[in-house]
Amino acid sequence: YAYTPKPLPVVSNCKQVTAASNFQSSQFFSGTWFVTQAKDITTSVCHKFEPKINGNAISVKADGYYEIGRKRDFYEVPCTGTNTDKSGKFSLTCKPKRRDSTSNNPIIVNVDVTVMATDNQKYAVVYRCATSLSQKTENYLVLQRNEAEVISGLDAILKSKELDPNTLISKKKID
């Protein structure tokens, strides 16, 4: 994508947002999710996530282009965590690494995720707050199983979560 991303906003604290009451971990943590919209973007709308769950152990493959240390590059990003309360809130430890990196000192990013709204099959609206070193950044993302599908009623769902659909950056807007 030939899009110059803006950096994510730095925040002092992660927001406490309400998780979707209908969240089903077994459905959410299977298959592939594509990021189709983001409130604040680095390269978020070019990402896909492949989550898996085994008992309480969560693993997420989040490979993609990220801006780390003011340099945008492709990173392999394995993430792990636990799904202890199955409520739609979970924490991941991610270790982004460039394919050509030989460093034994991995970057560690702690990511807190809240699934704010979902039908567990076609879409999810998530809040994520990432901490790397002492810096926290946040973003709101729309995830879809089929990145080309138009989700009926999604704008109303976003508005109910105080997100303006007209200000979200979508993959369509940057292609």
From TrEMBL:
Compartments it resides in: Secreted
InterPro entries: Calycin, Triabi/Procalin
Keywords assigned: Hemostasis impairing toxin, Secreted, Signal, Toxin
GO molecular function, one term: toxin activity
UniProt record, GO biological process: symbiont-mediated perturbation of host defenses
Cellular compartments per GO CC: extracellular region
Chain segments annotated as transmembrane: none
Assigned protein family: Belongs to the calycin superfamily. Triabin family.
Record-given protein name: Salivary lipocalin
Species of provenance: Triatoma brasiliensis
